[in-house]
C-alpha cells in the first residue's frame, strides 16, 4: 500500500519539485521535501537542508526518518543553473553547478540508499534534463551534470538491482515554470518551434511520470532515461 510509503524530494519548494510533491501527496504517500528556503505544498513535511552541506542533510534525513520511518523513494530534484558560454565561464561557475547538481545528488543518495538496502526496497528517481544528452550552448556546466546522472543511475542499478532497488532518470524538456515565464514571447516561440509537440509541458506532466516510476507498475524498469520533452530530444 502506498499509504505507508515515504518519499523524500530535494528542492520540493518550487517548480517541478513542488509539483512532484503534490502528485505524491494526492497518491497517499508520506511526503518530505528539502528546501533551503520556503516550504513544500500543503500536506508535505518540509525540512531545511542544502545538498552542498553534508551535515544539514544528516540532520534533515534524521528528522524525516523520525517522523515517518524509512525513506522508500528518493526524488533528487534540487539543482541550479549558471549559464554562460564556455569561453566566459569561470571555474567557480562550473564548480558551483557541479557541487549542487551532481555532488549534491551523490550526498543525498549515499545517505538514503543505506535504509533502502536494509529494507530491500527502494526507488531512486534522478531529475535530469533533455540537455544532458542533447547538449545546449551556454550550459556546458549544467548539461555535464545532467548527463552524469545517467551513469550514476546505471551504476546504482548494477550495484543494488538485486535488492529490489531501481534507479532511473527522468529528463524533462521545457516546462511551464517561473523560469520559462521570464522568457520573451519571441524566445518562447523560437523554443516551441523546435518541440514537435509545439508547447511547453505542465509541471504535473513530469510529476506523473516520476510518481509512476515509484509505483509497483514500474518495478522492472531500471537504468532508464525517460524523456518528458514533447519529442525535443528524440534519438538521444
Residue share in helix: 40-55%
Number of helices: 8
Tell me the domain tally: 1
* CATH homologous superfamily (4th level) name: NAD(P)-binding Rossmann-like Domain
Strand content: 15-25%
Helix vs. strand class? alpha/beta
Multimeric organization: single chain
- Level-1 CATH class name: Alpha Beta
Give unreliable regions as ranges: none
Total number of beta strands: 7
Overall pLDDT metric: 95
CATH topology: Rossmann fold
Order of helices and strands: EHEEHEHEHHEHHHE
Strand order of the largest sheet: 3-2-1-4-5-6-7
Sheet with the most strands, sense and barrel status: 7 strands, parallel
Overview of this structure, please?
This protein has a single domain (2-175, 202-226), classed as Rossmann fold, CATH 3.40.50. Helix content is 45%, strand content 16%. The protein has eight helices and seven strands, in the order βαββαβαβααβαααβ.
Short summary of the structure?
The protein is α/β, with parallel strands linked by helices. It has helices at 15-26, 54-68, 91-119, 131-134, 140-160, 178-181, 185-194, 203-214; strands spanning 6-10, 30-35, 45-48, 73-76, 122-127, 165-172, 225-228.
